[in-house]
Amino acid sequence: MLDMLQEMARLLAEKAHLRRLGSLFSETVLLQVGEEEYYIHFDRGIVSSIRAGISRKTPWRFALKTDSAALDAFWQDIPEPGYHDIFGLVKMGRARIDGDILILVKNLRFFKEFMALGREVRNK
Fold it and tell me: For 44-99, what is the HEC assignment?
């Protein structure tokens, strides 16, 4: 998973429209996949660091918590209905969003498109 996130970060740095969308986004996001935790720090729309491992000391603004099977389905080239969107995962009970929902909503398109970069990585 860490390799996948690092590749997504590399793709993000190459996409000018995404960097522009995230230009005001400088936060740490927790991505929890099963029991694994990944702290993704964005600095003005660029991933500046990704730290793996459980940490109760690392502050984050919002979290996307899901399981690996749901994330694999989300990252399919053409996902099944419900797996096409992070809120679809939530609605189906396959994911949960915690923390400051306002920050997520303010940067929703940027974060959703960042997460969708996994499709590009997975389906090369």
Answer: CCEEEEEEECCCCCCCCCEEEEECHHHHHHHCCCCCCCCCCCHHHHHHCCCEEEEE
Residues 6+ apart with CB under 8 A from 116: none
Instruction: Tell me how far apart the alpha carbons of residues 103 and 95 are, in angstroms, rounded to a whole number.
Output: 18
Q: Which helix (H) or strand (E) holds 36?
A: strand 36-43
Distance of alpha carbon 18 from its chain centroid, rounded? Answer: 13
Is the pTM value of this prediction over 0.85? Answer: yes
Q: Which two tokens stand for residue 17?
A: 């429209």
Whether the per-residue pLDDT at 123 is higher than 90: the answer is no
Do the beta carbons of residue 59 and residue 99 sit within 8 Å? no
Cα separation values, 29 from 63, 65, 97, 99, Å: 6, 11, 11, 9
User: Does residue 81 surpass a pLDDT of 90?
Assistant: yes
